[in-house]
Design a protein that fits this description.
Its cofactor is Zn(2+). This is Guanine deaminase. Helix 5 links the parallel strand 6 and strand 7. The protein is of the alpha/beta class. The relative contact order is 0.16. Helix 6 runs parallel beside helix 7, helix 13 packs across helix 17 and helix 14 crosses helix 17. Helix content is 38%, strand content 24%. The strands form two sheets. Strands 5, 6, 7, 8, 9, 10, 11, 12 and 13 form a nine-stranded parallel beta sheet that branches.
Length: 435
């Protein structure tokens, strides 16, 4: 058992459902007890210190706030090297930057080096669980899962399925994509804290035959994820109409092949009709809100209130490398602005929910992660109130927890993450090299 003493904050429910005041739990001077990689107990230090078993190791985190590990519901690990690339929107972005970068993952050594850097960067930003795109190459998935397994992380990933409208060296075919995915599923799904996602890139790069086989994988292996893109860019939507004229709309392409349901996550969902929103909500599917990439690529503004009004589960995604930061604090910074432009306000406690428990619920993992309730995985982050002079000065002026949390999400970034824990083990500390 290990005890961590600091201010503690976590979400208990969606503020939209229960109201802000009932949605979170906060301990100004709290104690978090960890045992065997799980959270054993949480509460006021004054109440728990007298009853701690003898010999329990204690770590005091001064001027710090402990929150659950951040959850990233959409990100591309092969795109790290093209982050901050200038001047294109989605379809040109793929041709100019993404496809050349992904072709390099035919080399297993490159894939291993990239996976190691990528996961270290996630942890440096306090993200302990992510739903991750690999490439069409099976070795890209092997490299990612091997590194995630070494660190005992709860991660979800899968081989990209892409059998048309892509460079020759990045295409599989319907049969080989199915067979390679089956091999990877049987090798990695359920190993430790790893989960597999069937991953057609998006409708334009898969034939109907490939999408049909993707649906077959989901039926053959219950518990898998489906991870793809949906309605990110208006030119993309028009392309889908040309390729699938028989389908009612973009989502209907996926629905026709039985790709909707629990653990199906669709990135972006910016330009949806009411029927698509209703169907996403009714099927239990989720949408990943990716504000930094939606702004950077000029894709559009995500309408959170509309999606949630239809009962759609929503998580937060960085979408690196179209996204501009691994930091979910920075994602929330931009999400606040995206919603402001539409006359919506992102309350700081709702923001924390989206980055933690909301993401866990979007991934159907809230039984394991998302808050600090006893029995959950001990995945948590220590945020430094004095990470930068400006942040420290602003927090000194804060008159409430809400104000303090809002300043953290607007001014915070990777520098605010003092330490990250996964399954109770320190996997990143600002003053220590990565493990």
């Amino acid at each position: 058992m290990h005890a961590h003493r600091a201010a503690l904050l976590h979400c208990l429910a969606d503020p939209r459902e229960v109201g802000i005041e009932h949605s979170y739990q906060y301990f100004e001077d709290g104690l978090l007890l960890v045992e065997d990689g799980k959270i054993a107990q949480i509460g006021d230090a004054a109440s728990l210190l007298p009853i701690l078993p003898a010999g329990v190791k204690m770590t005091e985190h001064r001027d710090a706030l402990i929150v659950p590990g951040f959850v990233d519901t959409h990100i591309h690990y092969p795109q790290v090297d093209v982050i901050a690339s200038y001047g294109t929107q989605l379809l040109e972005w793929l041709e100019t930057y993404t496809f050349p970068a992904e072709a390099r993952f035919a080399d297993p050594e490159h894939a291993r080096a990239q996976a190691r850097f990528f996961l270290a960067e996630l942890l440096r930003n306090g993200t302990t669980t992510a739903l991750v795109f690999a490439t069409v190459h099976p070795q890209s998935v092997d490299a990612f899962f091997a590194e995630a397994s070494r660190l005992d992380l709860r991660m979800i990933a899968g081989k990209v399925l892409m059998d048309r409208n892509a460079p020759d060296d990045l295409r599989d075919d319907a049969a080989s994509g199915y067979d390679e995915s089956k091999t990877l599923i049987e090798r990695w799904h359920g190993k430790g804290r790893l989960h597999y996602a069937v991953t057609p890139r998006f409708a334009p790069t898969s034939t109907p035959e490939q999408l049909e086989l993707a649906g077959r994988l989901l039926r053959e292996y219950p518990g898998l994820y489906l991870h793809t893109h949906l309605s990110e860019n208006r030119a993309e939507i028009e392309w889908v109409k040309e390729l699938f004229p028989e389908r009612q709309h973009y989502l209907d392409v996926y629905d026709h092949h039985r790709l909707l349901g629990a653990r199906s996550v669709f990135a972006h969902g910016i330009h949806l009709c009411d029927d698509e929103c209703r169907r996403l909500g009714a099927s239990g599917s989720a949408v990943a809100f990716c504000p930094t990439s939606n702004l950077f690529l000029g894709s559009g503004l995500f309408d959170l209130a509309r999606l949630e009004g239809h009962g759609v589960r929503v998580g937060l995604g960085t979408d690196v490398g179209g996204g501009t930061s691994f930091s979910q604090l920075q994602s929330l910074n931009e999400a606040y602005k995206v919603l402001q432009l539409q006359g919506q306000q992102l309350d700081p406690f709702k923001a924390l929910y989206l980055a933690t428990l909301g993401g866990a619920r979007a991934l159907y993992l809230d039984e394991h992660i998302g808050n600090l309730q006893p029995g959950k995985d001990a995945d948590f982050v220590v945020l430094d109130y004095k990470a930068t002079p400006l942040l420290a000065r602003r927090l000194e002026q804060a008159r409430s927890l809400k104000e303090k949390l809002f300043a953290l999400m607007i001014l915070g970034d990777d520098r605010a993450v003092k330490e990250t824990f996964a399954a109770g083990r320190s996997v990143h500390r600002r003053d220590r090299p990565q493990p």
